[in-house]
């Protein structure tokens, strides 16, 4: 009996040593809201939907200490629909993110797999006071289609932060037979963060050629700045889109401007507002303006309620729609109210 107890104690101690060097976390977001859209061909559309403020997801992430300031990391993250329980991409397992890599405190981070682009991270984290969610999302007028959001087959390198300066470079292999250039995508960003100031410049270039067809390149550049004045946080972004932004999209040539703010209300609330303008440089001159306002209220550290409204004024036959974080929307006006829980 004593030998058995001693053996169990030794095994337990050895297990604790092994697991102390690595950890795996299950995390996610459950977001569901009521959305009412107007001004589209379908008239008024009212629905309960998922991912209004942030996309609902289930993920696994882990890190293992390899010693000497080096760690191995991984993420597997799948999108889900909180309103139906279905996967947001049928047949996929980790459609949002799936990567593995190494992190060095001195040399930086290298990741391989499906990942966000530096352009998208700049738009979400620095440029948009709505963080690309709710009716006011910058996605409604700024380009985020297809591989501008995430890239499969990508290799990224992120430098350590040096006096607030950090850079990132991303290369996505096109994997087209007979060509090393077709379908490849290259992106990068340089950012500065110090106290209340955050600034970043991001660039993305996509080769839309296939093995059989030549297509125009797509180019996106984005300058974003936000500054926290304590009584309010101000946001500004300027974007430039030119060429064919994805394999199936039309050729574009436009400038995009965003100004916005978040204003704290008490210890748990925040008012969000933004104005976004798309200046179309093509002959059709299909410009658009978006006005948006919202409010979020933290019910706890993990749970928040939200409400938002946005309207787009389309010009010269343009038909941009008011969507949210996960849906493009059906009309030029939308109202959201809902609840988000992070775990």
- Give the domain tally: 1
- The name of the CATH topology is Porin
CATH class: Mainly Beta
Radius of gyration: 22 Å
User: What percent of residues adopt helix (DSSP H or I)?
Assistant: under 10%
Kindly report the spatial arrangement of strands forming the biggest sheet: 1-3-4-5-6-7-8-9-10-11-12-13-14-15-16-17
Element-level helix/strand string: HEEEEEEHEEEEEEEEEEE
Point out poorly predicted stretches: 1-20
- For the report, how would you describe the main beta sheet? 16 strands, antiparallel, barrel
Keywords: Cell outer membrane, Ion transport, Membrane, Porin, Signal, Transmembrane, Transmembrane beta strand, Transport
Protein name: Porin
InterPro entries: Gram-neg_bact_OMP (IPR050298), Gram_neg_porin_domain (IPR033900), Porin_dom_sf (IPR023614), Porin_Gram-ve (IPR001702), Porin_Neis (IPR002299)
Pfam families: Porin_4 (PF13609)
Helix-strand layout with pairing:
Elements lengths: L1 H19 L1 E19 L2 E8 L6 E11 L2 E10 L17 E8 L3 E9 L1 H10 L22 E9 L6 E8 L12 E10 L2 E10 L11 E11 L4 E12 L6 E15 L3 E12 L7 E11 L4 E12 L18 E10 L1
Antiparallel strand pairs: 1-2, 1-3, 1-17, 3-4, 4-5, 5-6, 6-7, 7-8, 8-9, 9-10, 10-11, 11-12, 12-13, 13-14, 14-15, 15-16, 16-17
